[in-house]
Amino acid sequence: DGGITQSPKYLFRKEGQNVTLSCEQNLNHDAMYWYRQDPGQGLRLIYYSQIVNDFQKGDIAEGYSVSREKKESFPLTVTSAQKNPTAFYLCASSPQHASTDTQYFGPGTRLTVL
Amino acid sequence: GNSVTQMEGPVTLSEEAFLTINCTYTATGYPSLFWYVQYPGEGLQLLLKATKADDKGSNKGFEATYRKETTSFHLEKGSVQVSDSAVYFCALSSGNTGNQFYFGTGTSLTVIP
Q1: CB spacing of B51 vs A40 below 8 angstroms
Q2: How far apart are CA A13 and CA A21, in angstroms?
Q3: How would you write B22-39 as a 3-class SS string?
Q4: Which residues in chain B have Cβ-Cβ distances shorter than 8 Å to A101?
Q5: Phi and psi at residue B96, in whole multiples of 5°?
Q6: Which of A46, A79, B33, B77 has the fewest CB atoms within 10 Å, i.e. the most exposed one?
Q7: Which residues of chain A are under the pLDDT cut of 70?
Q8: Residue B93 and residue A100: Cβ atoms within 8 Å?
């Protein structure tokens, strides 16, 4: 089955630590995205990548970093510089970066800072 | 700029009631419009979409029509079921910014038997 996988499902971090969230897709999609979701709010874009070895900042990139070394993988690192990292993180992909393309979402990772 | 305004929730309906969730948008260019559904603890699933004015998206009994004159994309269903209980998100993708999505804040729907 084609789809997007995210791991882990739950992640706990101590203050001052960096953590990396995994996102893998086998849909052969060119574009991938990371969003943050907070309770009662919509999704906010952190980073996106249209092709391998290229990525762009979204609306709330501060305190986050990404890489896109392979087409199928787009890991997100939450650094210690992110002041309030507790949230639900969603990865998505789309065939290309066209405005008519649907974005397909993974199941999410819930990050809690202890 | 681009933004989506969604009807405030939560919404509680009895089974078989008619559902409307309002969504209006502001966009530059020619946006595509989407409705996504999210069940507790899960990611978002596409419910329906429309890519140009007057298009109607439909899926699983849900419908929404892209109205450029009123900048709206309201979600409707004639008879809701308990299994429709979820959070619904309206989103747009503006032609001027590639496929960057802009989401509404979500509307929580609970359907009671």
Answers
A1: no
A2: 12
A3: CEEEECCCCCEEEEEEEC
A4: 93, 99
A5: -85, -10
A6: A79
A7: 1
A8: yes
Write out the two tokens for B14: 């009895």
Determine how many CB atoms are found less than 10 A away from the CB of residue B52: 12
B46 touches chain A (CB under 8 A): yes
Beta carbons of B37 and B86 less than 8 angstroms apart: yes
Q: Which of B33, B39, B44 to mutate to probe the A interface, most A CBs <10 Å?
A: B44
A54 neighbors A64 (Cβ within 8 angstroms): no
C-alpha span between A72 and A52 (Å, rounded)? 9
d(Cα B63, Cα B47) in Å, to the nearest integer? 9
Q: What is the pLDDT of residues B40-97, one digit of tens each?
A: 888 999 999 999 999 999 999 999 999 999 999 999 999 999 999 999 999 999 766 6
Q: Is B29 left (phi over 0), alpha (psi -120 to 50) or beta?
A: left
Quick one: CA torsion of A26, A29, A35, A40, rounded to 10 degrees?
A: -80
